[in-house]
TrEMBL record:
Top EC class, one word: hydrolase
GO molecular function, one term: 6-phosphogluconolactonase activity
Record keyword Hydrolase present: yes
InterPro entries xrefs: 6-phosphogluconolactonase_DevB, 6PGL, Glc/Gal-6P_isomerase, NagB/RpiA_transferase-like
The name this protein goes by in its record: 6-phosphogluconolactonase
EC number(s) stated in the UniProt entry for this protein: 3.1.1.31
Pathway: Carbohydrate degradation; pentose phosphate pathway; D-ribulose 5-phosphate from D-glucose 6-phosphate (oxidative stage): step 2/3
Gene Ontology process terms (BP): carbohydrate metabolic process; pentose-phosphate shunt
Family that this chain belongs to: Belongs to the glucosamine/galactosamine-6-phosphate isomerase family. 6-phosphogluconolactonase subfamily.
Reactions mediated catalytically: 6-phospho-D-glucono-1,5-lactone + H2O = 6-phospho-D-gluconate + H(+)
Any coiled-coil regions, as ranges: none
CDD domains according to UniProt: 6PGL
Length: 174
């Protein structure tokens, strides 16, 4: 695992993706017009078609965030979806954070990725990052993301890293 701190914070994933020449045909989206259960099934089908081979799709890279409660994707602390092992995409109808209905990748998919980058910014993330990165509080959803064969890196701004005492690399720019 690698932790890097950026003084001004890293660029947002949306900003990054807008700079890449990715054809629309290679962008898989969740259909918000469908009921949440159907949207999850539809997205799982799209992923299986695009990433054929293994029962669990293997992404080259996932860029994830972490919430102040330790959630990532739409996987929340103490939620039954943390135990999901069969589905690669799951609906959630009782999200503790708006909107209540969401679609999320499951932990088996996250942990099958070749590389995972977590991006966390702001003082509001400092306490949970200490719990995850120093206290090794392994029950928080973001802490459960441990790629089996890949790399895990954390990109933090100074505000998010302010409570950490573990060694990390400090950079002035990306």
């Amino acid at each position: 695992m690698s932790i890097q701190v950026q003084p001004d914070g890293p660029p947002s994933p949306t900003h990054l993706l807008s700079k890449l020449p990715i054809p629309d045909s290679q962008v898989l989206t969740i259909n918000p017009a469908l009921p949440v259960e159907d949207a999850a099934e539809d997205y799982a089908r799209k992923l299986r078609q695009a990433l054929q081979g293994d029962a669990v799709p293997v992404f080259d890279l996932l860029i994830l965030g972490v919430g102040p409660d330790g959630h990532t994707c739409s996987l929340f602390p103490d939620h039954p979806l943390l135990q999901e092992r069969e589905k690669i995409v799951a609906p959630i109808s009782d999200s503790p954070k708006p909107p209540p209905q969401r679609v999320t990748l499951t932990l088996p998919v996250l942990n099958a990725a070749q590389s995972i980058i977590f991006v966390a910014t702001g003082e509001g993330k400092a306490a949970v990052l200490k719990r995850i990165l120093e206290d090794k509080e392994g029950t928080l959803p973001a802490a459960l993301v441990q790629p089996r064969t890949g790399a895990l890196c954390w990109f933090l701004d100074e505000a998010a890293a302010r409570l950490l005492s573990v060694p990390f690399e400090k950079h002035s720019t990306l």
